[in-house]
């Protein structure tokens, strides 16, 4: 006996795709909540998690992604099988040319003589090869092992070289969040010096313009207590260990940074996080801007209970 065929239903359609054009600077989740008032926050977080939200055709998962006017945002209500995330990494953005990740503290960007397997590069390399064994990953820039935050890789050599060779014009913004020892007298300021690296991989700062590469760091204090200051730090130049050395220069080392003068490690990691990365996409010419949340361990140092406890653990005098 033949199984009865279901009658054709012309009214049965695939779930729609909602499309919006951004009118003002806003975070992604807040924007979706305003545009889709009938949807619950949990529902929108779920579609983000499952890569059903795209910006300019590229799927995103980051709920606090910063939107800029003119961008096209699409929400697909038809759920597809989510791509498996690489273990130990959070992919913030991915297209045919680039991958942006939120690197955890403690993970190397690339292999060293002592560590070759557990690196951001190795994890991402294995991830792209699952789709095609011929796929490759290329390093564009690096973050120190103990620094967390936004890190970008290329999927081909052309894009890698294009970004590296036009770094100063392609990269529009690099903002870090840093926790430093003590209270800064000035709420904001700029540090300028010339940096050189020794054979022992130690970076030294000098006011001698004939020695090293010029480095410029801008900082602004956003929180403080009796023991620490929380800073928003913008890089005008991107030299190796620039922030760490410049904070030592003003006698307020990054906490947990023993190499550059810190005498305490209250959160068992270095207090530096790459929070914002904005750049012009080398292929599309459009602005890509990403922002991550300030690590909770940083903020916990400035809670009332922590602040009271830290009165007894002030950093040593320089």
List the keywords:
19% helix; 4-stranded antiparallel β-sheet; alpha+beta; Pseudouridine synthase; disordered N terminus; 11-stranded mixed β-sheet; globular; 8 helices; Structural Genomics Hypothetical 15.5 Kd Protein In mrcA-pckA Intergenic Region, Chain A; 318 residues
Describe this structure in words.
With 318 residues, the chain is an alpha+beta fold. The chain has two domains: 16-76, RNA-binding S4 domain (Structural Genomics Hypothetical 15.5 Kd Protein In mrcA-pckA Intergenic Region, Chain A, Roll), CATH 3.10.290; 90-309, Pseudouridine synthase, CATH 3.30.2350.10. It has helices at 28-35, 41-49, 120-131, 157-165, 167-170, 242-249, 296-300, 304-310; strands spanning 17-21, 26-27, 53-55, 58-60, 66-67, 72-76, 90-94, 98-103, 138-139, 148-154, 171-181, 188-197, 203-206, 213-224, 228-235, 272-280, 287-291. The strands form three sheets. Strands 7, 8, 9, 10, 11, 12, 13, 14, 15, 16 and 17 form an eleven-stranded mixed beta sheet that branches. The model is unreliable at 1-14 (pLDDT under 50).
Please sum up the structure shown.
Helices cover 19% and strands 31% of the residues.
């Amino acid at each position: 006996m033949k199984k009865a065929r279901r009658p054709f239903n012309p009214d049965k359609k695939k779930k729609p795709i909602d499309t919006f054009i951004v009118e003002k600077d806003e975070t992604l989740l807040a924007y979706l909540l305003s545009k889709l008032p009938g949807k619950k926050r949990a529902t929108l977080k779920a579609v983000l998690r499952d890569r059903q939200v795209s910006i300019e055709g590229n799927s995103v998962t980051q709920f606090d992604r910063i939107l800029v006017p003119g961008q096209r945002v699409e929400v697909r209500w038809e759920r597809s099988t989510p791509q498996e995330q690489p273990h130990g990494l959070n992919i913030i953005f991915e297209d045919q040319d680039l991958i942006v990740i939120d690197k955890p503290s403690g993970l190397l960007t690339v292999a060293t003589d002592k560590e070759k397997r557990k690196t951001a590069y190795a994890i991402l390399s294995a991830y792209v090869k699952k789709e095609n064994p011929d796929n490759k990953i290329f390093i564009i820039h690096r973050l120190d092992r103990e620094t967390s935050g936004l890190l970008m890789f290329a999927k081909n050599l052309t894009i890698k070289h294009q970004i590296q060779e036009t770094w100063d014009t392609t990269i529009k913004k690099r903002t870090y969040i840093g926790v430093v020892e003590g209270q800064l007298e000035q709420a904001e300021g700029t540090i300028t010096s010339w940096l050189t690296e020794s054979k022992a991989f130690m970076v030294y700062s000098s006011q001698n313009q004939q020695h090293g590469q010029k480095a410029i760091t801008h900082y602004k204090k956003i929180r403080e207590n009796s023991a620490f200051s929380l800073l928003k730090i913008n890089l005008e130049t991107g030299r190796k260990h620039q922030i760490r050395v410049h904070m030592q220069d003003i006698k307020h080392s990054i906490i947990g940074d023993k190499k550059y003068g810190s005498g305490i490690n209250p959160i068992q990691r270095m207090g530096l996080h790459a929070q914002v990365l904005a750049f012009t996409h080398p292929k599309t010419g459009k602005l890509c801007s990403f922002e991550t949340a300030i690590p909770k361990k940083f903020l916990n140092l400035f809670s009332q209970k922590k602040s009271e406890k830290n009165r007894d653990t002030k950093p040593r005098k320089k």
